[in-house]
Amino acid sequence: MAKIKAVDSPVKGKPAKSAPAAIPSVGRGGEWHQTAAGDQPALTTNQGLTIADNQNSLRANPRGPTLLEDFILREKITHFDHERIPERIVHARGTGAHGFFELTKSLKKYTTAKVLTEVGQQTPLFARFSTVAGGSGSADTPRDVRGFAVKFYTKEGNWDLVGNNIPVFFIQDAIKFPDLVHAVKMEPDRGFPQAASAHDTFWDYISLTPESMHMVMWIMSDRTLPRSLRMMEGFGIHTFRLVNAAGESTFVKFHWRPKLGLQSTIWDEAVKIAGADSDFHRRDMFDAISAGNFPEWELAVQLFSQEEADAFPFDHLDATKLIPEELVPLQVIGRMVLNRWPENFFAETEQVAFCPSHVVPGIDFSNDPLLQGRLFSYLDTQLSRLGSPNFHQIPINAPKCPFANQQRDGHMQMTQPTGRVSYEPNTLAANSPHEQPAKGFRSAAVDEAGAKSRIRAESFADHYSQARQFYRSQTAYEQAHLASALVFELSKLEHPHIRDAMVGHLCHIDEDLAKRVAGGVGLDALPQAPSAAVAVRDFDLSPALQIIGKMKDTLAGRVVGVLITHGSNRASIDAIKKAVAETGAKVKLVAPTIGDVKLSDGSLLKIDGQLAGTPSVMFDAVAIILSDAGAAALSKEAAAIDFVRDAFGHLKAISADQGAEGLLKKAGIEKDAGVIAIDAMDRFIAAAKTRQWDREASVRTLA
Ligand code: HDE
């Protein structure tokens, strides 16, 4: 039998700059092996043993069985097998960043919390943005609520403001949360759909939960399709309390307002982004921070007294209600800047453990029953996810102020306390931590009386009036998007009775909305509305609830895609780059092939993205700058036709030169005010700052 020659095994990884020439290693089957250069640290096991060979497991002979004895293999594989921790049951998909909060206005009158009283102080923080329904590997852009969680590492302990990008919630009582989440998650028998609410179990549950109707208006609006995590608002949702030095408390709601203004995508765009770049939001945040364009938000508060709360036409303890800005104006008190991307995604973004119960002296809870349930849930979930009551010792979770107590031991204990005292009070250790009556945390002394019961307050009974207020406060474009989203979602249902029930609820909110949706899902007549617990009221409209009304007149932080080919006009490309850069936005060049493109003047330009992998959904506005030959070639290219057609369909401004005409024609573009000649740069920039809303009726039939 012929002797079998052992095969060389390539050495993985880059050779070190100073790597010595590969030397054959005798007696290991003839494979060659590169030794570590002197300046490289040794690869070791977790016990510190230097590893000689990280490419071959220990075998009985070169082609024989692997030996159980190979403790190096077993340690490595075992560790690998345990690399994942349970993902969050909700909000599994997230993006985090470090930054700081700077207070600009003191709330000393209302609170003792130093983070809210020391003007000019910068408090380090970690923020995590997330989708709710999908798993940790799901796409960034499904229609979904976004988590907006901020951990402030204050001098007085960690304060976690764990909010969402929508100021209300689905349910009024924490006991309903597991049902809500089970209903929206993939259906248990089939394991789909992932990260989508457009399925029977979600709408079945919602149709039986009238208190969620206000939230339904928000999730069916474009708020659930943010253009960027940098362009969303954030809300603490619940009413909290601030407590001052005299022990007096004031109610507070927290709001984050993005410096770049509010902006959303539209549904067809969000769907296509998910295919083009499922990490769209994470990458956008990474790119912005890497480029030094640090995302920023204002922190604002709504403050109100018990007497004012008593006069509201809704209950401030009900998380399905908001307090319109027109009723209690927002006061801006500071800003958050995110300026550092985590060094390690797992260690920081995955292991960060937020708990609404993490507050500091001067901040306290209200009786919102949803908040009360959350105060339990998050600590419990961290014990399950991170596996130990010592999760606060993980660097991302550890307070940055001194912390000490007599809690001891436990799984994965990292500290090694000394001495014989592990209890408080004591007389044996003078320097051991003791309670501090004067400066420690105290709950607001609130009178509580009444009979114990499982009864929802009557003041929680109005489920439709704020839903109506939200819908009617939207622009006509936004109303059409909302109605169409409902049609889309309800059309996916297999069970017609759920559709009927949902349209029945809509009748209470707005009859026109109900008719639009009924028409969209093919109902001949409006179904019977369920009985409402209380009569629906007409609140004053609140324009602050719009997105379009809250877009800022800016292109800053956005991206303009410029489609070019060989022979494109250099001067036009330079002009658009200059104009876009002046607004604080950036240009990305797209061409059929990656590498350099040779322009009209013979110069070379490096391309940022290849056409097939860089569709126009990645951009806020586009320019098409082509030579005649380039346009002729691209007219036979589906990706180029889609580039233009989608930009037009997604209501984006399009700047086009003479050469681009052929491609526009091939894409069937009927020019409107948002399709702008390349030399009218000011008009293009102005149009790029918004969407061409009036175009929509010509490209899509909305409900
Ligand atoms: Fe959460 N929620 N939630 N939630 N939530 C979690 O905690 C829960 C609610 C929110 O980036 C979990 O660490 C209950 C409202 C965010 O790590 C869990 C109830 C709001 C995040 C949990 C709610 C939120 C979570 C899962 C009903 C907006 C992600 C993993 C009473 C104010 C934080 C985890 C991050 C995460 C429970 C309702 C926001 C299971 C029981 C209302 C932003 O503990």
What do you see in this structure?
With 703 residues, the protein is of the alpha+beta class. Helices cover 26% and strands 16% of the residues. It has helices spanning 71-81, 177-184, 200-207, 213-219, 267-276, 280-290, 306-311, 345-350, 369-386, 465-473, 476-491, 496-509, 511-520, 570-582, 628-634, 638-649, 661-666, 681-688, 696-699, and strands at residues 23-24, 32-33, 94-103, 122-131, 146-154, 157-164, 234-235, 240-243, 249-258, 296-304, 331-340, 363-365, 559-564, 586-591, 596-598, 604-606, 609-610, 621-625, 654-656, 675-677. The strands form 4 sheets. Strands 3, 4, 5, 6, 7, 8, 9, 10, 11 and 12 form a 10-stranded antiparallel sheet that branches. Strands 17-14-13-18-19-20 form a 6-stranded parallel sheet, sandwiched between helices. It has a two-stranded antiparallel ribbon with strand order 1-2. A hairpin with a 2-residue loop joins strand 5 and strand 6. The chain is globular. The termini are far apart. The site of CIS-heme D hydroxychlorin gamma-spirolactone 17R, 18S (HDE) has 25 residues, from strand 4, strand 5, strand 6 and helix 9.
The SS-based structural class is alpha+beta
What sort of overall outline do the alpha carbons produce when their principal axes are compared?
Answer: globular
Helix percentage range: 25-40%
The major β-sheet equals: 10 strands, antiparallel
- Heterogens: CIS-heme D hydroxychlorin gamma-spirolactone 17R, 18S
Rg on CA atoms, Å: 29 Å
Tally of extended strands?
A: 20
